[in-house]
Amino acid sequence: MSGFTISPARRALQLWFPIAVIFALIFVELVWNGFSVMATLDVSLVFVPIFFIARHHEGPVAPIAVLALGVLKDLTSETPLGFWALLFCVFFILSVTQRHFLQTATFKTLWVTYGLLSFLVYALFYFVSLGMSSMIADFGVSMVSALLTVLCFPIINLAFLWFIPDDMHSGVN
Q1: Cβ–Cβ < 8 Å for 65, 46
Q2: Which of 25, 52, 64, 79 can bridge 83 by disulfide, Cβ–Cβ 3.0-4.6 Å?
Q3: What pTM does this model have?
Q4: What digits encode the pLDDT tens for the residues 140-157?
């Protein structure tokens, strides 16, 4: 997508609003960890705004912000430093590689692509956690977490529809 079709203020909001949402979701997930079901599942809703940033924002700030927010999630979730940063960056990179394909995609295509990327990242979650003695690895729990993350996509994605130019409302088809 060309940066010339969007006003500078809207372009800045396309980056900073999703970053603020990621930041807020990281802290909301802290509250959810008090529930026994959420303590075993790791539903990471932050992948939706990361997916949006990867699809709609170009430039050096986005990957740096994604990495920094991954480190923040590591610090708040008591996982080994770099664990979530790796997952955030891999998800971001995979999403960026699909940018051209997703520019004119329908909502179903966006959701399926998001789902496939989420399952790939949660498989990575499982395999990386196998090698860490401080983490319990369970493939079934990882895949259920991925499924719940994918099922939440339509709801969280609604918050970002305003930031898509009118000629590219790919989230409503």
Answers
A1: no
A2: 79
A3: 0.85
A4: 989 999 999 999 999 988
